[in-house]
Amino acid sequence: MKVLIKSAHKSIPKELYFTLPSFSIITGLNGSGKTHLLEAMANPQLSELTIEGQTAQNISLIPYNSLTPQITEASDNSSIIDTIQMYWSDISHHLSMWAVSNPSTALPENIIEDYLAPAFGTESPGVVAVKRFIKHTGKKATDMGLEDFHNFIDITYSKENLFASQCAMAFKDYQRRRFKNEVSEYLSAKYPARNISYLSQEDFSEVFGPPPWELMNQVLETSGLPYRFNDPGEDDPELPYTLRLINQINGRLTSASELSSGEKVILALVLAIYNTGESGTKNKVILLDEPDAPLHPNFSKMLIDTIKEIIVGKSGVTVVMTTHSPTTVALAPENSIFDLDRSSKHLTMVSGHRAVQVLTKGIPHLRVSYENRRQIFVEGRYDVEYYSYLFQIINRDNRFNYTPIFVEPHSGDTNCSDVIAIVKKLRESGNDLAWGIIDYDNNNKSSDSILVLGENKRYAIDNYILDPIFICLALIRTRKKTYYDFGLSTGKTSYTEASNLRNDECQIMINSFLIQCGFDLINLETVHWENGFKLEYPGKFIQYQGHDYEKLITTTFAALMGLRKNNRESGLKLAILDIIDDFRGFIPVEISQTLRLIQNT
């Protein structure tokens, strides 16, 4: 992002020009002007922010101590229905007016872009509902009725703020939809002649997803906050619903407004994660003034990870934050920290180590340790992607006490000898935080600082990522294959039902897959999974060269080529890592064991 300060603002001079990455952290001594700079950047009259050649239009400044969750805590059926009716009245009126004005003209395919969006906005709930109706039914906009509109509108969408949510309305609306569907199912069985339509439980989950309170509570659990949202569940759907947080320690019901300032920051991040998954980008640029100020240092990593991976990485938002915290800059990604000079107001990219020195200057006994970081060399640039993703997945359950920085040797080749050589040099120079992870390749052995992934267990990381169970599930998820195609006749049909697979069912699927690939089920070796399952794999599979194995399975199951995320060597494996993320209990234990060796040494 390019920034030009057009007019002076407080301590910030005009004609200041600088470039920032998509996530940047501005630090500096007190009085350097960090808050003044954010204020100038947030005001289009004072500055111009340009991203990829386009002027940023949607810029949000969240001042000091203002990163708080904005939650609507009460809702009832009448308010939901009234809101839906209001949107429907506007949409149906405009569609009717178009038909009256164009009686002999067929409805154009671009009626949304040319007619509805200019009137209501591209992301307004009513327009989004029409888009969803057309997409899921294949019908025209004028075919939509009030009942259809009810089914496809999301009245809880808030395009202005990632940190806001109409949680109570979202929970109540889901409860209302589910109850209405259950009534229709009951009436359909009682009066079959009426042809009353309803969704099966599986289809309902497919269309509307899981209960939103379950999703929110999963994120709350991950965050470490000892609260869960109360579940409207089986309560009378006609009664009003008041949202509360249940303290998991003492059972007390708490309003979000009663949380501590640090807890409010974490809850705001929880909302950002949920909103990103639900509705996508809502701000082009977010400016955060010391959002970590009320946080315990333990939560600084969650703040950084949420901003970097969810708000920036997934939602595509550009984020600039300021900080005075040595802990925050110590955890910051490389090339993201900028020091604001108090005199010149120039921004200079600095290392985390340098930023910590600036923030702790004059306090000789305060030091921020980097000993929780590990520099881990792997065999190539694709392995950096694989290990980074795997660590992120496994860390949710293992909670490692270090932060890995996976890097390639930069030799241009993919081989273990370069990893061994560079780690040896770093260790000899006194860097005892440098490690290497290499493939087994049927002959490598671990040493003090070089770890072999799957030593005597599996040929390479490719064989782990492309494990038969994950390939089966990838093909089932994309409906290229079914459970039946892999030997199961237990009635399972949907991808999500894989979470209920038993040990013996997994073995049946693995055996079927391996037989289809030409493996004989002989010389079996036991493989242990993270969830405690024990599976038998033939020795030939264990020893199969990684790249040759990928060629074998893509030849046997040509549909796998269509799953690739890109046309590079990493394309298929990155797609399968998404499957692994969904079912991390199926990961063989050797990966976490290897990562734990780095933690324990």
Automatic annotation (TrEMBL):
A GO term for molecular function: ATP hydrolysis activity
SMART domains given in the database record: AAA (SM00382)
Source species, domain of life: Bacteria
Pfam assignment, any one: AAA_21
InterPro entries noted in UniProt: AAA+_ATPase, ATPase_AAA_core, Bact_Antivir_Def_Nuclease, P-loop_NTPase
Domain AAA+ ATPase: 20-353
Protein name: AAA+ ATPase domain-containing protein
